[in-house]
Write a structure and sequence with these properties.
Helix content: 10-25%
Largest sheet: 7 strands, antiparallel
Radius of gyration: 28 Å
Strand content: 25-35%
Length: 581
Amino acid sequence: MYNTSFFKKILLIATVAVFYSCDKDFNTVGEDLIGNNDNFDLEAKDDYTVTAYNKKVTPVASNNLPINALGIYENPVFGTTTANFNTQVNLASYAPALGFGAVIDSVTLNIPYFIDPTKTTISTEGKRTYVLDSIYGPETGIFKLSVYESGILLNNYNANNYDISQFYNTDRNSDFQTQATTNPNVFGLRLNNSTNTAENDQFFFSSKPIIEKTAATTTTAESSKIIDPEMRLHLDKDFFKAKIFDAPANKLASPDVFKNYFKGLYFKVEKSGTSAGRMAMMNFNKGKITVFYKAKTAEKDAEAVAKTFVINLTGDSNTNVNTVSLLEESNPVSDYTTATADDVTPDEKLYLKGGQGSMVVIELFDKTDLVHYVNGEPVTGSNGVSDELDEIRNNVTYKKWLANEANLVFTIDSQKMSSLIGNDPKTIATEPGRIYLYDLTNNTVLTDYTLDRTSSINGDPKKKRTVFNGMISIDPTTKIATYKIRITNHIRNLIKNADVTNVKLGLVVTESIDITSSSKLDKTKVLPKINNESFLTEIPTASVMSPLGTVLFGSNIPESDQANYDKRVKLQIYYTKLKPN
């Protein structure tokens, strides 16, 4: 309990200026608190029971994610994640006029990287230095990258209908690999077969800009263009000559026919020797294949002219491009495997990991139900409501308490998260910048999420809804890292509405706070139990997108553990209450 005069002043100001003006429900929980502030006292309680336990996420649908990972990330806390990828492609124009006598000069695949604009610098000489964003693992990490013609036609995906033939789950990589390399109807060989090993056997994410130079002509001087860092691979010219330029005209006439003819690209990722890998979040939707060639515009023309033909990795208003993120989990750390065993026992450590990783189930308030209240007085006998929640409702209804603010606070296990691979300090795991809390029972957002319409900080789209929060915070003095999530309205609804169900809450890492849709788990596999009657059937899509993980202190920490007991997950509720006469 915290009860200082400074705290009182600050909280009273916040109560009047924020909650009264911004929250219509301010006076619906603890009404009639009007009068001289000397009549009121403030109280903060954080000793409520919170039950939290881990759940392993089984294979989950990973169709058409907005952002996809690519590469290898060796996490010393969780294990190794290898992210492969498959995508359809879309002609920039159908029934194209490609010219006559085409000779291909080169074919490039270009996919821009995410960069941190706040860290981009330009020297006095005009040289730009970039820092890549959303990239994980040692800067020197490399891996083997192979791009194949896909051998699987991706069906259109409807998240609202469970049709297993249209679900492509995180664990399907072996199917895509087999079809890309052994299916007799596809090329079967690596397309990125350049002699430059940085484009295949020793691929790495380069932060250097690309300088494109245009040669001087009789009328123009030599010029250059700076391209932001991107993946740029040279692809097999003979394949595209046969697949596009020598194709029967009807194969390039419409999107549906073309998708059956050229099923897309499969990106296969493997370790390169003993080198540590690296992983980046990729916006494949901005990727494209450009064929540079020379051809006569008309058959009677004397000379061929330079031309380009574009194949996009994104759709348009008339065409969908389907994708699937293919994640392989290997070398799991034993502590992680043990902690995510399928049970509903409260855990001492909470393991959150994106992708086909793990999440946490949270239940608020103790299950003890021995008393209830009648006209403000306790009466022995159960009523189907937690005694803790009953007491809060009684304090608000009969003692005129006001619930000002409620938060769930999670403390990161910094010692566990400082684990290394060997003794290499560069292998320390990257902390997720944000976690997300939602109504697990109904697979929907909480009221506090909906009511928070705050805009992003410094234009960063990952830092919207700052009141609902969930962003990592590091105390500058103690260096203790925490995540705090505002659930004021969720708690108020439980207090004032006796018929509101105290639902289970779900906690996950998130790649985007704006994405609240869910991805279904493969129900043909064994599903994780939430309790003896229900199972985990879906997971927030933004969690599937993220490769990161963190370890938090849970609820099952004994008081005898003096070093960590106070770091347990806490439900904090701040009250204004009438002073006793």
